[in-house]
Amino acid sequence: MNLPGHKLRWFVGAILAIIILAVAALWFIPDFGGSVKGNRLLRVKASPSYSTDAFTNHPPQKPFSVADMWDWVEKSFSGDEVRVPPAPLPVLTPSATLFHNPVASGLRAIWLGHASVLLEIDGVRILTDPVLSRRASPFSFMGPLRYHPAPIALHNLPKIHAVVISHDHYDHLDMAVIKHLARQGTRFFVPLGIGAHLERWGVSEKQTVELDWWQSAKVGPVVIYCTPSRHYSGRRGFDYNATLWSSWSLVGPRHKVFYSGDTGYADHFSRIGKKFGPFDLTLIKVGSYGDAWLDIHMDPEHAVQAHIDLKGQRMLPVHWATFNLAYHSWKEPIERTVVAARKNNVILLTPRLGEVVDTKNTLTGSFWWEEH
Description:
Layout: H1 5-28, H2 38-45, E1 50-51, E2 54-55, H3 66-76, E3 107-113, E4 116-121, E5 124-128, E6 162-164, H4 175-183, E7 187-191, H5 195-200, E8 208-211, E9 216-219, E10 222-227, E11 247-251, E12 256-259, H6 268-276, E13 279-285, H7 300-309, E14 312-318, H8 332-343, E15 347-348, E16 356-358
Parallel strand pairs: 5-6, 6-7, 7-8, 12-13, 13-14, 14-15
Antiparallel strand pairs: 1-2, 3-4, 3-16, 4-5, 9-10, 10-11, 11-12
Helix pairs in contact: 6-7, 7-8
């Protein structure tokens, strides 16, 4: 770059201003989270999944090429897919009395949108990746906007015994929810490194359980296993893969539930199925995929195969119908999932948002999305 003196000074000044603003944002906007350091960093570096200076997939994921990036940009700003529902989606609000007594069957699930599910398993209430805020973003004025209100408002959540977090992206880790539940004494089960974010948000160290893959801890009678996935992490702009990503296997005395988190399809599903299966219920990501992302984001057909690998009895598709995060239509994931499930004789649960799924009954849901 060969610029005249005054232009060079202006260019350097602009770059410095951007850097200063970025650093200031990280300092003053707590939603960005914290950085992994100290004893936490030592534990992170000791993980078999950590290589040189970051976590990595095994085998390493396919590099995202310039052609892939251009394809993503082109498809994101073109096409005739209906990416946002043209009419309000049906949202049910569970009765507050629902949680006065444990469910008789021992297993109940309420899909709150995207990857957030309120589970009751053998008397223990567990939330998966609870995101209830209006946007999946550190900013209130920009970022992916919810298609629908949360079926249960934050202040109306019942007592939550545990939260499991799959990774630190904004559509899976919501600071407002974490801070609210922390004040109520909820325990947080997170993959290695993510405790740094919770620490910055004032969550007590005693409430945070950081685990590597295949490690576990208990909440009541339920054993919570941190299990593998194939994805990536990053929240602060320059912390790519600084924290681990995971799926979760919840093993109670009577019931077992699997939650996939964000992931590509790989042999970890069959390994988990052999170790902990069969699962009474699987919560598996079916949306937010693209041709160039399938190494780390499953499409619906692979999601159904993952359920089969896990030896699942019933499958509840998640990670769709809440945020516009990909260039497919908003309901394509569930349409393709239904077809794949039929071909493979998979029992598919398709509840409306906020609808209670009790595994004691035979409710599989309706095709409610066809009305939109």
